[in-house]
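B., you asked whether I could sanity-check this one before it goes into the benchmark set. Here's the sequence:
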Amino acid sequence: MEELKLERPVEMLLALLRAALHGREPEAACFCRSTPAEWLQCYRLAVRQGVAPLVLGAVERVQAECAPPLEVKLSWAMFEERQQEKYRAHCLAAAELTRLYAKHGIAAVVLKGIGLSRLYPVPERREGGDVDIYTFSADRARMSDEQANSLANELMEQRGIEVDYSYAKVHTSFFFKGVRFENHSRFLNVDTFASVANLDAWLGDCLSAGPARLLGGECEVSVPQLDFDRVYVPLHAAQHYGTGLSLRHLCDWAVLCSQGTVVLSCAPENEYLHRVTRCLTRLCNMYLGTAVPVDGGDDDLPREMMREILYPPFNRKVLPDNPVKAACYKVRLKLHLLVLRHRLLGVSWCEGIARLLKSILHRPSRLYK
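And here's what the prediction gave me:
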């Protein structure tokens, strides 16, 4: 596969990630003659990609003559300190919510995030956004999984906590102890990604949770087995392709690759699962220092994915001031997203365009916001 031409701050960040993920010394050649401006760009890129805390240890091991300026180091350290506080809050809140649900016969499993952090060299440096949980019945003879998931939301509402049902086909969301949780009733968005519907059902059937002690044993949550993660994590990342897929998602796959077999042999046959895992594995081998054998696949797709991660052609947060230009921009963005989803997960052109037209007709004002 032909390598993507990368800017120097990107090469610096990737070198830091390789050092952080594998406990290596940073590659000196990547940092020689680095300017303060390049270090600042590297730091800002790390923040955007959700990996700034992860690489701080590697930054501190860069040779003194090549190290970043003091003000960049200080910004990096303060960002990492805030992440550690956030991580601690997430762990404690997840453990307390798990105990609360258990009293009512509800099992709660933490998906990725703080659960997956246990595989990282320094767990608290795995940056997270919210906490994803999957709730189901601890005793199906007394209560179905659907009833347990619904009760999990009702318990929050009984405590005066507002539950957001905007994406209820996949998950609800709420704030507990100041931490945003997503309570999943499904693992994958099968309405949009019908090509992996058989895997969503399989994930539910094969889920087998076990305890994970976090914060040095201070608290405990339930997490899925690694076989589950090897299917769920790449498919979850693929759903973010074009809408926030980042180097953090790639690092999650890299740490899973370091645990053994990449693709689970007992998972249902699905060409899109193989397409996604091949693509992510190639990128990890090329940029993050893994060495996992991978055969076949589209040589162009990994390069396109990396370009989308590092150099996305659309800025989803900044729209043109002119309403007509803003609407055209949003339509082009949606069509670009459909192309990406079709290439990676086989999303139907007809269904994708029909969904786009339906959303425009239903809420045309969203095109201008």
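One thing to flag: The longest strand covers residues 131-137. Otherwise nothing jumped out at me.
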